[in-house]
Design brief:
Helices cover 44% and strands 1% of the residues. The protein is mostly helical. The protein has a two-stranded antiparallel ribbon with strand order 1-2. Helix 7 packs parallel to helix 15 and helix 11 runs antiparallel to helix 12.
Length: 508
């Protein structure tokens, strides 16, 4: 067997990472458009075979947490970026669609397959000497996850591209090139100055001084938890990586190891998550989803169908570095059929990221989807994969708009009718992320809080991963859909130092 901690760690048991389910965002369709069938997301997409849920009932912490002396955690994400303006009129309506939506589906028995702890994690052989403890996170992996190109626009009212006459992306109908306003040249997200994350780089950052604060907080009898929380949650992911390097330079030991010796429980997990390197925790989760007792297809979908090209490249690099295997080959070996194909497509990190839309081509692709699905007996899956897995988010918005005109049905409703099982879930997840990422994650966070028991690890994962990208929009969508603030729900459902960490990240 091997260890579930980080390279160089001794073997120790670890359980499957609990996952938050995908709560159904409520309210009308995005972009200020008229209600249409099939959106917002189906409440029965991810749990059991058809419902939400995930690993909510698991008592096992995810790999790398509370399972040995090595540091571990979720990787925090670097600044993505969304404008700071409040949503403009004509954004997302607060009322549910008058009709339509996904058909109600009875949750099937079961859920995620029970997974017993198995040996695995970081391989002991090749490149990671067992006698030399390694830092919990490789140094030099600065940066992180940026916003999905085309997910949000810079400038103008609101954080989401507004619907223009004639469809998404502007223009007045007909053919020709149209451009999504404000998105040109922003292939990898917005700059730090325009981010609408809740965690931002601190001014006059001094890694040396921060290291001294952390050292003093862990010296002597007892630990100054408040000092650790206040400092760590007020630094960006890139700044935390500099603190890790400076701490080891100053004191000759790993900060993550020191934190693990002083902290415990979900508090420890959340602090270590904030010190994560780019792509590493996703790689850890994907490895566990594949190598565990049975495959966790839900988690494969959650990560690979929602990440940007840059994020998936970081995950691929981290996976190869940690496990000496490629993520693509692991997916090929562990899945089958059309679901395997969409995962392989996602692993290429090659989705088009252009910011212009050729409406003539979009109309042709909409017609191709209709011809491959609703218009024929059987379904030509390759056409759906070619379009949904490879085209830009901006382009897909236009395709979905054009599809409604051609088929008199929303694309998500067609996916429900034409597909089943994991491929259906994968394609619908792509549709949700294309239309409104913040609404999608707001629903997931609600499910993590309101589901059968609090899924603390899902809260950590989402709070940390979205903290520098779109947490402001997520809070707005949460309030709109659930008539309560995310801050208040977290406060009521968690406790102690763990609650302080989450509330500092999410903000009021």
């Amino acid at each position: 067997g091997g260890g579930y901690g980080y390279p160089g760690g001794p073997p120790h048991p670890g359980g499957p990472p609990p996952h938050g389910g995908f709560g159904p965002p409520h309210g009308g369709p995005p972009h200020g458009g008229p209600p249409h069938a099939g959106f917002p997301p189906d409440a029965n997409l991810y749990g059991g075979d058809q419902g939400y849920g995930g690993y909510s009932g698991s008592s096992q912490p995810p790999i790398g947490f509370n399972s040995g002396p090595q540091g571990g955690g979720y990787p925090a994400q670097s600044a993505g970026g969304y404008p700071a303006q409040p949503p403009a009129a004509g954004g997302y309506p607060s009322q549910p669609p008058a009709g339509g939506g996904y058909p109600a589906q009875a949750p099937a028995a079961g859920g995620y397959p029970a997974q017993a702890p198995v040996g695995g994690g970081y391989p002991a052989q090749g490149g990671y000497p067992q006698s030399q403890p390694q830092s919990g996170y490789p140094q030099g992996q600065q940066g992180g996850y940026s916003a999905a190109p085309g997910s949000y626009q810079q400038g103008g009212g609101g954080g989401y591209p507004q619907q223009q006459p004639g469809g998404y992306g502007g223009g007045s109908g007909g053919g020709g090139l149209v451009k999504d306003p404000g998105l040109s040249g922003q292939m990898s997200g917005m700059s730090l100055s325009s981010t609408q994350g809740t965690v931002k780089p601190v001014a006059n950052f001094d890694a040396d001084a921060d290291c001294e604060v952390l050292r003093k907080a862990m010296r002597g009898m007892g630990t100054d938890e408040n000092a650790i929380i206040d400092l760590v949650t007020a630094r960006s992911q890139a700044q935390r990586q500099k603190i890790l390097l400076q701490y080891k330079t100053n004191y000759g030991k790993d900060l993550t190891h020191a934190l693990k010796s002083e902290l415990s429980g979900h508090f420890e997990s959340s602090i270590l998550a904030l010190f994560g390197g780019a792509g590493e925790y996703d790689a850890l989760c994907l490895h566990r989803a594949i190598e565990g007792l049975g495959t966790d297809e839900h988690l494969l979908i959650e990560i690979l169908c929602t990440r940007t090209n840059a994020q998936i490249k970081e995950i691929n690099e981290a996976y190869k570095r940690m496990y000496h295997k490629t993520l693509e080959q692991e997916c090929v070996n562990d899945t089958s059929g059309q679901f395997k194909r969409v995962l392989v497509s996602m692993c290429q990190a090659n989705r088009d990221e252009s910011t212009t839309v050729d409406r003539t081509k979009a109309s042709a692709d909409a017609a191709a989807l209709y011809k491959a699905g609703e218009k024929k007996w059987g379904t030509e899956e390759s056409v759906f994969n070619r379009i949904l897995a490879a085209k830009s988010y901006i382009y897909l918005r236009t395709v979905f708009d054009e599809y409604t005109k051609v088929a008199n049905r929303d694309i998500a409703s067609t996916i429900d009718r034409e597909f089943s099982g994991d491929i259906r879930k994968a394609y619908k997840t792509i549709v949700y992320i294309v239309r409104n990422p913040a609404q999608y994650f707001a629903g997931r966070m609600n499910k993590a809080i309101k589901g059968a028991g609090t899924d603390e690890y899902a809260l950590i994962r989402m709070a940390v991963s979205r903290s520098e990208i779109d947490m402001v929009q997520i809070k707005q969508e949460y309030q709109r859909a659930h008539s309560n603030s995310l801050y208040k729900d977290i406060k009521n459902d968690t406790s102690g130092d763990f609650r302080k960490v989450l509330l500092n990240i999410v903000g009021q």
